[in-house]
Amino acid sequence: MVCAAQEARVQVAPIFESLRFLTIVRSRMTIVDIYMRAQIRDFQSTIVAAGIGLAAVGFAGRYLLRRMPNLSQRMAETVKKLDSQSLANSKYYKGGFEQRMTRREASLILGVSPTASKSKVKEQFKKVMAVNHPDRGGSPYIAAKINEAKDLLEK
């Protein structure tokens, strides 16, 4: 005759086996769970950061739209106050290159007087060419004009 304790052991044993299997599976899944939870956490923080950024852009846009009438009036007043003559007489040369280079144009390119000595022209050429050399990001066309100016002034 089977006693109650043996019968209980027989019924309990499959339960313990299934629990042991679950603990093995669960221990294997924890590595995956940890990875997935980290991925989800990263994704959630990205979404939160994007939401904060969009809110900041929205508030800035709202602020600008409310202030725009005042800004446009101030800009119009400021432009009227500016002296157009001072803007027209800037330190930069207006216009392009002439068909044939003259001594005046060559001296403007190198930044020397038209009657400068050869040593002064050579010294200024080195300075200007160091800044505008094509190997250092300068324009080949400008470099050719600088060389042409040096040749003309050294004659």
TrEMBL record:
<feature type="transmembrane region" description="Helical">
    <location>
        <begin position="43"/>
        <end position="65"/>
    </location>
</feature>
<dbReference type="GO" id="GO:0001671">
    <property type="term" value="F:ATPase activator activity"/>
</dbReference>
<protein>
    <submittedName>
        <fullName>Mitochondrial import inner membrane translocase subunit TIM14</fullName>
    </submittedName>
</protein>
<keyword id="KW-0812">Transmembrane</keyword>
<dbReference type="GO" id="GO:0001405">
    <property type="term" value="C:PAM complex, Tim23 associated import motor"/>
</dbReference>
<dbReference type="InterPro" id="IPR001623">
    <property type="entry name" value="DnaJ_domain"/>
</dbReference>
<comment type="similarity">
    <text>Belongs to the TIM14 family.</text>
</comment>
<keyword id="KW-1133">Transmembrane helix</keyword>
<keyword id="KW-0496">Mitochondrion</keyword>
<comment type="function">
    <text>Probable component of the PAM complex, a complex required for the translocation of transit peptide-containing proteins from the inner membrane into the mitochondrial matrix in an ATP-dependent manner. May act as a co-chaperone that stimulate the ATP-dependent activity.</text>
</comment>
<keyword id="KW-0472">Membrane</keyword>
<dbReference type="InterPro" id="IPR036869">
    <property type="entry name" value="J_dom_sf"/>
</dbReference>
<feature type="domain" description="J">
    <location>
        <begin position="105"/>
        <end position="155"/>
    </location>
</feature>
<dbReference type="GO" id="GO:0030150">
    <property type="term" value="P:protein import into mitochondrial matrix"/>
</dbReference>
<keyword id="KW-0999">Mitochondrion inner membrane</keyword>
